[in-house]
Amino acid sequence: MSDDDQQTRADFADAVNMTASELRKWLDTDESKRVGQKSGGSTESTGHESGRHIVRILEKKQADYTDADYAHMRKVVGYVARHAKQRPKGDVHDTAWRYSLMNWGNDPEKH
Description:
Layout: H1 3-15, H2 20-27, H3 30-34, H4 46-59, H5 67-84, H6 96-103
Helix pairs in contact: 1-5, 2-4, 4-5, 4-6
């Protein structure tokens, strides 16, 4: 295991504050499915697809992480960091901004 992998796991743990079961339940909601960008004619948004990958990562043992898992963890860390800086003013509870972050495993209302 490299130091980079260790740092990636630590950063991912900081960025993703939802459990696998919380995220799986969220991904089943209409709100989750409505937000985010869809590409190439796909009916699923990039964030929703990401959320499904995050659930798989959270349910794995660290020893079973693949290079693709580490690459996705880095993508998640970057997305959460960028998107969190765009927080709108006021109550964010029922906003596309929060829902989008939640698709990526981060609930900004959870501490």
